[in-house]
């Protein structure tokens, strides 16, 4: 699969011929503000929760591209009120077969509210599974014992994990998460965007190297490929 990083926790993942955009927060990200959101194409937007640093550009991109937004029920209702009608409401524990594969919604240990203060339901992570590759996008979350369930559902090729600490787990916990999910191919997210989550890249890379694991700390606007291993 091919992955492009748009900063913070925003990735465009091309899998099975479809473009999946996760948590678009670009135009308000100081580190990514030279990216033109009008240049981004998407077939789907997967929305982990309602915090502004994940949803700031969702309405604009969804309206322009008509990408289907996959999100929890409460965010689906909120988006409908903003004039975004192509939505698919889900909730934790549920799965649905889309044309690119199956999405299963997982619990994230975090909080959620919409940028205007309205109720945003519960935060989620996503498992994306198809006959080419399986990957996990954790969203904003602490390390949780629930992650140990994931290997019972699928063999992962890659996982997107937050490593910035303060609001989510840190890199040390991401190593433990990597053990829990039985996946040694980790892509870092939710780091460096603001002061609270600035990280030392070298020490994170050393941490993973010492655990015999791969961590990709992507550069903004970088496109890279992930090899399926299952
Ligand atoms: Ni959050
Ligand atoms: Mn966040």
Structure notes:
The chain has 230 residues and is α/β, with parallel strands linked by helices. The chain has one domain (2-225): 4-Layer Sandwich (Metallo-beta-lactamase, Chain A). It contains six helices and 14 strands. Strand 9 and strand 10 (134-137) form a beta hairpin. It is globular and about 50 Å long. The two termini are 13 Å apart. The model has no long low-confidence stretch (mean pLDDT 97). It binds nickel (II) ion (NI) and manganese (II) ion (MN). Manganese (II) ion (MN) binds next to helix 1. The site of manganese (II) ion (MN) has 6 residues, from helix 1.
Q: What distance lies between the first and last C-alpha atoms, to the nearest angstrom?
A: 13 Å
Write the CATH architecture name: 4-Layer Sandwich
Major sheet attributes: 7 strands, mixed
Mean pLDDT: 97
Instruction: Extract low-pLDDT stretches.
Output: none
Roughly how many Å is the radius of gyration?
A: 16 Å
CATH class: Alpha Beta
Number of strands: 14
Helix content: 10-25%
User: Which ions and ligands are bound to the chains?
Assistant: nickel (II) ion, manganese (II) ion
What is the tally of helical segments? 6
Instruction: Give the helices and strands as they follow along the chain.
Output: EEEEHHEHEEEEEHEHEHEE
């Amino acid at each position: 699969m091919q992955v492009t990083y748009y900063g913070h926790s925003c990735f465009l993942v091309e899998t099975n011929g479809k473009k999946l955009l996760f948590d678009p927060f670009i135009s308000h990200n100081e580190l990514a503000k030279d990216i033109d959101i009008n240049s981004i194409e998407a077939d789907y937007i997967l929305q982990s929760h309602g915090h502004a640093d994940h949803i700031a550009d969702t309405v604009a991109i969804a309206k322009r591209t008509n990408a289907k937004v996959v999100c929890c029920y409460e965010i689906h209702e909120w988006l409908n009120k903003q004039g975004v009608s192509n939505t698919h409401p889900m909730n934790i524990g549920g799965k649905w077969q889309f044309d690119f594969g199956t999405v299963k919604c997982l619990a994230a240990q975090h909080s959620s509210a919409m940028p205007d203060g309205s109720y945003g339901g519960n935060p989620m992570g996503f498992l994306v599974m198809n006959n080419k590759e399986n990957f996990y996008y954790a969203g904003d979350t602490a390390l949780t014992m629930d992650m140990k369930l994931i290997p019972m559902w699928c063999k992962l090729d890659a996982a997107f994990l937050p490593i910035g600490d303060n609001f989510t787990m840190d890199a040390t916990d991401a190593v433990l998460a990597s053990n829990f999910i039985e996946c040694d191919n980790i892509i870092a997210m939710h780091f460096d965007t603001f002061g609270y989550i600035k990280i030392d890249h070298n020490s994170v890379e050393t941490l993973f190297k010492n655990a015999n694991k791969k961590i990709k700390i992507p550069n903004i606007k970088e496109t890279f490929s992930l090899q399926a291993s299952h």
